[in-house]
Amino acid sequence: xxxxxxxxxxMLAQYIIEEEATVxxxxxxxxxxxxxxxxxxxxxxRQLNRPLYLQVQAVLxxxxxxxxxxxxxxxxxxxxxx
Length: 82
Description:
Layout: H1 5-19, H2 23-30, H3 34-48, H4 50-80
Helix pairs in contact: 1-3, 1-4, 2-3, 3-4
């Protein structure tokens, strides 16, 4: 994904909010690294658009609280198919 980092940060934020996506999902969708997504939606977005930043943080915090559940489900699916 080419373009200005500021534009990318806003696009990533909108995607994460609309889809309630994880950082990994956003990285895969836009073809960039997880580190870039994280930096864009935490550091850059905080400077650019505070209200949007707060919305993204709410989604990311929710994802963080649920990650142990998603991990368990993924493990269950993995062994279900074996």
